[in-house]
Amino acid sequence: MEWTMEDAMSALDPHFDVIDAICRTGLATYRRYPPEMLIEHSSRAAATCTYDHMVAQAERSLTGRDGVMFLDIRGLKVWVIDNKTVIRFKKMDEDGHSRNYPTKQAKDYDRQQQLPGLPFPPLNLVAGYLMDATGTEVVRVQVSRPLGKLIDWCAAIVPASEWKIGERRWVVVNARF
Predict the structure, then answer these.
(1) Of 59, 74, 61, 50, which is closest to residue 128 (Cα–Cα)?
(2) Cα(101)–Cα(106) distance, rounded to whole angstroms?
């Protein structure tokens, strides 16, 4: 089965508010560190701390929900939703790329390869936050479908406070089609 962006985002729709909150809470928690500590952190340290806060929030908010299963595949932390869609959390750029030095399993995940315990055929997605130029605020929370080093598509989740009934809960940010 070939997944479309509409299929993937529809599968995630019941979880949009939780995904949005996970990403925003991760950065907000980090930004509450004392200023004298924040100034000492490199951008790498800031991203690592924010990631750890996102994963902790995801464990509290997603794990245990109906149809959601947490897996740790040799350090790659993912959530399987309805045994179809898989998400992991990352800091992202405006096109939906995550920035890091990926492990072999992270590369395989991004290539849409089958990993132990994940559904087949894989629909491996990345959910994450895009920061403003100052690195202090979340511009948007988005979901992307990586295809190796490329991004097949990226869509931004419309926050519940901005969503209007009758409109989609997401907007296209980047697509290869």
Answers:
(1) 50
(2) 9
Q: How far apart are CA 3 and CA 16, in angstroms?
A: 18
Tell me how far apart the alpha carbons of residues 82 and 86 are, in angstroms, rounded to a whole number.
9
Distance CA 108, CA 58 (A): 22
Contact present, 131 and 94 (Cβ < 8 Å): no
DSSP reduced 3-state for 6: helix
44, two tokens? 């790498």
Domain locations along the chain: 5-175
Q: Among all chains, which residue has been given the structure tokens 């995801």?
A: 58
Does the pTM of the predicted model rise above 0.85?
yes
How many CB atoms sit inside 10 A of residue 30's CB?
Answer: 22
Helices (H) and strands (E) in the chain, counts: 5, 7
Task: Determine the Cα angle at 109 with ends 119 and 71, to 5°.
Answer: 55
pLDDT band for position 1 (cuts 50, 70, 90): low
Residues 14-64: pLDDT tens digits? 999 999 999 999 999 999 999 999 999 998 999 999 999 999 999 999 998
